[in-house]
Design brief:
The protein is an alpha+beta fold. The protein folds into two domains: 2-107, 2-Layer Sandwich (D-amino Acid Aminotransferase, Chain A, domain 1); 116-255, Alpha-Beta Barrel (D-amino Acid Aminotransferase, Chain A, domain 2). It is 26% helix and 30% strand. Strands 7, 8, 9, 10, 11, 12, 13, 14 and 15 form a nine-stranded mixed β-sheet that branches. Strands 2-1-6-5-3-4-16 form a seven-stranded antiparallel β-sheet. Strand 7, helix 4 (136-147) and strand 8 (152-156) form a beta-alpha-beta unit. The longest helix has 16 residues, at 38-53. The radius of gyration is 19 Å and the shape is globular. The chain starts with a strand and ends with a strand. GO terms for molecular function: 4-amino-4-deoxychorismate lyase activity; transaminase activity. Belongs to the class-IV pyridoxal-phosphate-dependent aminotransferase family. Keywords: Aminotransferase, Transferase. One of its GO terms (biological process) is 4-aminobenzoate biosynthetic process.
Amino acid sequence: MATVNGLPASVEQMAGLALTNYGHFTTMRLDGGGIRGLPLHLDRLERDCAALFGAPLDRERVLHCVRQEVGRQAGPLIVRVTVFDPALDLAHPAGKADPHILVTTRPASALPPSALRVRSFAFHRDTAAVKHVALFSQLRLRRAAQLAGFDDVLFTDPDGRVSEGCTWNIGFLDEAGEVVWPDADILPGVTMRLLHKALEGSTTREVRIAELPSMRAAFATSAAVGVRAVLGVDDLRFPDGDSALAPLREAYAALPAERP
């Protein structure tokens, strides 16, 4: 099911998005009728709409559209809100924008999700701080990683500094069991931000591929899956694996969820 501005999406509207591939989005998990970090998701939509379209976005209008799509469902659902202009002119994209709100849903997977083995690639997303819909480059690398026998891809810079995953953030547990987030040019995910605030001693610093053997464990975060274990990067396997992440999952589960 998909709605645009609270009404059933038309073929013409979807064609506009598919052919221009210009817009931004946020992905949320609805559980028990609530969404963790809902204000942060709305903040992101407002900020990215100003960056991509030079236009304001009405938060209440977004929530109305989400309610129209979700109805009385309590979840678990993955709710994606995409902001785009179906009339955007490919040849003249600088024209006055009329951002529309596309809301789609799909069933959410069970928690906790299975662990990941990831392959590293040197790559930097264009306009990393914006959650835009141009996913070709990172999906191409995710495909390459999977064809090589891995589950997903982890990005670094050319000097081996770790940044983020394909559609998720990464964190580590150091030898002392403290949470470390890479200091890099990334898209700061809502789940990462919530955990960073909730976990005492959580720090952000430069993390290089070469130092990963000294880490106890690694994990991926996203709104869709919460906290997901990363078993290994390239040929490295983390010793503590999934067992060390229970306190992180408990901290995330304890965060309040708000009704849209």
